[in-house]
Design brief:
Largest sheet: 8 strands, mixed
Strand content: 15-25%
Number of helices: 10
Number of strands: 8
Distance between the termini: 29 Å
Order of helices and strands: EHEHEHEHEHEHHEHHHE
Radius of gyration: 26 Å
Bound molecules: uridine-5'-diphosphate, magnesium ion
Structural class: alpha/beta
Helix content: 40-55%
């Protein structure tokens, strides 16, 4: 029988988890040809998520959990789950039922019968979201696709099923600052994109702040593209040319004035201010962009673990680096 692992990152999901497992179990019951296993990852929740997980594990023997020593972020939680999975097909999905398990049969068909390496979903519309958030997220996808070699459809979410082979490729990428949407695309393989209707979160609340999403977007762009660095070079070149042209202008103007006693030679204070501020701004921006990359290099060179697990009920053989 083919096996399927469900990787579910959870941060403060005590309210929705039991409902998530209940609904998911209903769908699983309709797919007797697969053996399902949950790998719930408690990402340092501050509520009783871990207790809820333990209770679920007592009730259902296919519920496994890994609990982090603190909040490491959703990316780290997904990595931990993927690293521990050993199934033929591996799902990554949210705990809040915004990623409907009712899509399982269709998604599994794509990988198991149609021969795709991955089946991922994108949101068809973004009902129940503010116009500003939708606008920014559109802008992000545009920028991301324009600047880097990894392309993804607008509205792509972290809900997908992958083959063992693809999961192995993803786990083999050991970067600490992970941007999974990009990693999933970077590894290549053949992904089937399916649309799905956005479901509003009914229980609990989203843990993303606007600032958090902004940082996420910057992370995404810097992780897969060095175009901003190239932009600095181009900008420097353009400024160099401009200054040459304006220098030539000044010389010619001065000559005309000296020889023909014609024309106006002002002090040019305002112009000077503008140029100084402009160049100052460009320099600040360039240093900022350099800093973004340098900071990432700094974090990456420390080679710290992506997460630290404190507790798990996974079998000994499935455990990684000294977890107990
Ligand atoms: N999540 C996580 N760690 C975090 C933040 C979120 O594991 O630091 C999980 C969360 O429990 C949920 C998923 O990531 O299963 C998506 O989070 P959320 O619903 O808050 O994001 P949104 O749906 O608004 O993008
Ligand atoms: Mg959500």
């Amino acid at each position: 029988m083919k096996t399927v692992d469900l990787i579910v990152p959870c941060f403060n999901e005590e309210e929705v988890l039991p409902e998530f497992v209940r609904v998911t179990n209903e769908v699983i019951a309709t797919l007797p040809q697969y053996r399902f296993r949950y790998i719930l990852v408690n990402d340092g929740s501050r509520d009783k998520t871990l207790l809820v997980m333990m209770k679920l594990a007592e009730e259902f023997e296919n519920v496994k959990y890994i609990s982090f020593s603190r909040n490491f972020g959703k990316e780290a939680a997904m990595f931990a789950g993927l690293e521990h999975s050993d199934a033929d097909y591996v799902f990554v999905m949210d705990a809040d039922l915004q990623h409907p398990p009712q899509m399982f049969p269709q998604m599994l068909r794509e990988v198991d019968e149609e021969g795709h390496d991955c089946c991922a979903l994108y949101r068809e519309h973004r009902k129940g979201e503010s116009i500003i958030r939708t606008g920014f997220s559109k802008l992000f996808f545009k920028l991301q696709n324009a600047m880097s070699s990894v392309k993804m459809p607008y509205g792509a979410v972290d809900y997908r099923v992958m083959t063992r082979q693809m999961v192995k490729a993803i786990v083999s990428m050991g970067e600490v600052q992970r941007f999974s949407k990009g990693l999933f695309t970077w590894v290549g393989f053949d992904t089937k994109w399916l649309p799905y209707k956005n479901v509003e979160r009914t229980i609990g609340k989203s843990s993303w702040s606007f600032f958090g999403l902004f940082k996420y977007a910057i992370d995404g762009i810097t992780a897969f593209s060095i175009s901003p660095l190239r932009f600095i070079t181009v900008m420097g070149f353009v400024l160099f040319i401009l200054s040459g042209i304006s220098g030539a202008f000044v010389v010619v103007e001065e000559l005309i004035q000296r020889i023909f006693h014609f024309g106006y030679s002002g002090t040019g204070f305002a112009t000077l201010m503008c140029v100084i501020l402009f160049i100052g701004g460009i320099l600040e921006l360039s240093i900022g962009i350099l800093g973004e990359y340098l900071g990432r290099v700094f974090v990456e060179t420390k080679k710290r673990p992506i997460y630290i697990a404190k507790l798990t009920n996974l079998e000994e053989k499935d455990r990684k680096n000294g977890e107990n």
